[in-house]
Amino acid sequence: MHDVKEVFRDQEAPAGRIVRAIAAIGAATASQLVKSTGLARSTVSTLLSELKDCGIVLELDTKSNGFGRPSQLLSLNPATGRCAGVLLGLGEIRIVICDLAHTVLSDVWFEMRRDYTPEEAAEQIKDNLTRQCASLDLAIEDLLGVGLAISAPLSYDGRVLNGDVLPTWGGVDLAAIFSKHLECPLHAENESHCGALAEMTWGAAIGEKDFVLYKFDLGVGGAIVRDGVVQRGFNGSAAEFGHIALDPNGSLCRCGNRGCLQTFVGGYHLMRHAEEFGGQPVTIDQFIERAREGRLGYRRLIEDAAEKAGWGMGVTATILNPPLFIIVGKLATIGEAFTNPLKRSFARHTLPPPDQVADMPRPRFVVGKFLGNDDTVLGAVALVLHQHGRVANRSETRIKSTAA
Ligand SMILES: [Zn+2]
């Protein structure tokens, strides 16, 4: 007999691989599961029968490709497991609970002091999550996991690698602090990596295995996805595209270097220039509205930003040669006034030049589904669904050692 919690958390067992593959896709055919898990067809077939018998896997409608016998679509039984995602934002926290069919069951946000501490966050999250779980007849321990999304790169063991957005959080051991309050598996990742997982689970990257995501918002972030897995790099800070150095004499960046991509393209930079131009403070939403309308000065600011954005993406393409770029963040909502000059600049900054090799396949550019802030909190839920960014939970260790 399989227990959904045991199966879901077991990184190695074949049943765990099948359940996590379905959790990541939402609904899948047996053939898709053979392909994505690499298991033998007979193993997948036997385990699916067992998982169906114990109510973890459900049969949905059939899917026809127009030829031969239609294939049976399988999903996880939404009633068997819930997961939560937490966005640790600037002056606010948002918590979402989803079931295994990716349906949002609860969505709550609350304000915090702007410089709240990790301990304050952990206490508030425990209180709010306890109430949210109670409204669904659950306890926190019943959750398959809680994902934490934060605006900073994280090490593999859940340590905040720098605190340029939340200054008091640099070097903080998230796993140690949050596991004192949340007795269930913990996952943690930076928000751009969460954004890629949200696009893979709910958005423009469903079914995409290889792509690069660029997020153009107040800052610039990104993610590299290879073979369906978000790449974290050697120390967890892969795809920090906002810090690609374009000008050694440029403005100082929050990271301490000069001329980083986000000092040209980040929303903070654009708002500052718009204020200099108009003599009045401008919010990011006002900036975007005026750029979209093509107002004097704003159109030029966005074209200059797109030029640098395309340059950064061209550098990325020269190194990684991905088949697909997904563009998200508030700047993506400006539309072609941003994406057209970006693509022209991209073509000038990568190989091969388009007029040199006519029949060379080009990467696709797609604007993502999540252009506001939903990507981060849903991506935090997806950390659990994809079993990504797992950090050791000290309370689990404690429970285990007490039991032993
Ligand atoms: Zn920088």
From TrEMBL:
The keyword Repressor does not apply. InterPro entries: ATPase_NBD (IPR043129), HTH_ArsR_DNA-bd_dom (IPR001845), ROK (IPR000600), WH-like_DNA-bd_sf (IPR036388), WH_DNA-bd_sf (IPR036390). Pfam families: HTH_5, ROK. One of its GO terms (molecular function) is kinase activity. The keyword Transferase applies. SUPFAM superfamilies: Actin-like ATPase domain, Winged helix' DNA-binding domain. It comes from the Bacteria. Keywords: Kinase, Transferase. PANTHER family: BIFUNCTIONAL UDP-N-ACETYLGLUCOSAMINE 2-EPIMERASE_N-ACETYLMANNOSAMINE KINASE, ROK (REPRESSOR, ORF, KINASE) FAMILY. Residues 17-57 form the HTH arsR-type domain. Belongs to the ROK (NagC/XylR) family. This is NBD/HSP70 family sugar kinase.
